[in-house]
């Protein structure tokens, strides 16, 4: 493997998607992944017969879903019921999820119920691009009057974006994610690891080659043009195109003189979002109705993904809890809070526990469309011919896995569109806000 057309650095969803589209265009492609397995943050771990993702993962009806369908992936799983509880002042109340719960929820006054229903109806048809330059708070306060309707929308938009504070995230992407969620999210059988397996098979079938357990140490660039990829084990691969499907900080580190390129701006402007995730497998549920809850005055979320997906070999129920984190985090306090939510939803759960997984602080996204962003990253690094970025942080208005697939496709599209053209055409697709 001395020379290939395209080297993809990173074998997560973005890297695998980029590799597939490059190979589909006839490019000889190799994916280099530093871990011993593919998938990045979309892997699943099997523990005592239960499949755990790295925290709750749902496939919304956005770019990732459309891309995977286009690629012919089977995506086995189901949409869960939307019947939900809200946690408010330490108590559970039904949230409006259909006509019956809208009329019976004790959380909203009559006026609030009308406002909530009319806002959801308007939102389902709205062109959310018009809200890309205002914050979630500006959107909520400009569009909603009832204080409890505002609280519920803050909670729904937090779940959509994983971002705790409403002043940072741009409203448009968060609202689009909510629109996609309202169309129905998919919980995948055996977790997102199955999705990675399918992407891997698809890529291999198209001739993509994989180097796992191999860490890229730098990209050799001469005369402003990508020449070679260098790996820690001494491997050197000549190539014309490199897609950096890694975190922005890693992309920056791999490129000599990155501080003189747009990679520097993208790294500096990035705001990381993290969460604490507790996943448990329970032999049975003490409260079978209580499977889905949004924190309203707590930044938490609970879902029993087993109500829609096959996630255990022995019938255990796999419940995922998330604590959305701000800047300061405390792993013990977060765990205590999440266990408190389980006590509320499934009292006596400890006696039913077969296995658990606690991730005290995992990166959900390295960056997102926020109010302090100077420009949308990628697809091309404009100063270096043949260099691209992809990943959920290289969002041009998409969120999470949707941004991973969309940015990967943008990179390949841009690469193909420039073949044989002048290099300053690199600036063409740069997403300036
Ligand atoms: C708790 C949690 C919940 C989530 N929930 C959802 C959800 O409900 N819906 C949704 O759409 N998304 C969700 N996501 C987000 C989703 O998991 C990510 O957007 C997606 O997996 C990111 O893929 P990626 O390819 O951009 O990055 P990664 O998966 O991080 O891939 C990057 C890869 O690059 C590799 N790498 C890094 N440096 C090097 C190097 N030097 N050499 C070689 N390889 C290298 C890494 O090992 C890694 O495998 C969630 C994420 C988390 C953590």
From TrEMBL:
GO terms for molecular function: oxidoreductase activity. SUPFAM superfamilies: FAD/NAD(P)-binding domain. Residues 13-272 form the Amine oxidase domain. It comes from the Bacteria. InterPro entries: Amino_oxidase (IPR002937), FAD/NAD-bd_sf (IPR036188), Zeta_carotene_desat/Oxidored (IPR050464). Pfam families: Amino_oxidase. This is FAD-dependent oxidoreductase.
